[in-house]
Write a structure and sequence with these properties.
This protein has a single domain, classed as Zn peptidases (Aminopeptidase, 3-Layer(aba) Sandwich). The C terminus is likely disordered. The chain is globular and about 50 Å long. It has a five-stranded mixed β-sheet with strand order 1-2-4-3-5. It has eight helices and five strands. It is an alpha/beta fold.
Length: 242
Amino acid sequence: MKWRTCVSGAILSVCLAVTAYGKLTRAEHWSEKRLKHKHKLLTSERLKRAAGLADIDLFKQELKPFLKVRVSGTPANVEVQEHIKSRMSSLGWQVEEDSFVDTTPYEDKNFNNIIATYNPQARRRLVLACHFDSKYFPNAHFIAATDSAVPCAMMIHLADSLKELLKKGSGDGAKDISLQLIFFDGEEAFKHWTSTDSIYGARHLAAKLENTKFPAESSDNFNTNELHRMVGIIYNIIYRFK
């Protein structure tokens, strides 16, 4: 029951967020559309329908490839990367990578963030994010199922569950806003959590976005995000108030 509550809650969160965008006139510039955000309630029937999209058996299948030690810079971590890219590509999402090398307390390591966008032509993005690496313990076999294999599986299952609804679109703003899923590498500290030994992937992508100019009439980069929330936070909120 807990599993279904969490997975259904993630799907509901996206459905509620997407329905919060108001209609706009043709004369309004896309960058002003955030000013039109309005709260909108879904009927009980639509809420039940959205929650019913979750399939716990399919979710568990999505979870299996992540249930391994996957420390950043290791072959197992790369295997998980390949699975994420393959799975999201098979669902019809555009997949991009943000690869880099950074210094850790042990040695320089390779990291790779994965960004999956449903409609790359959309100027605005509704972003869900999690990390796929597991924490390094020198003398322990640490799989890190809750933090954060489960959120990764939740996001992929969400993309799969919503595929038919995404094809149909969600009103006048369907072509202007897109779901975007970011899978971060290197969230965990290798030794102790500090400003330099933690969130390697998030820090790198944030710096990249900050230094990327966004032309007024272009949509070929990431710097268009409307909302960035961690799936782990959604999990905690749903579990607390279920």
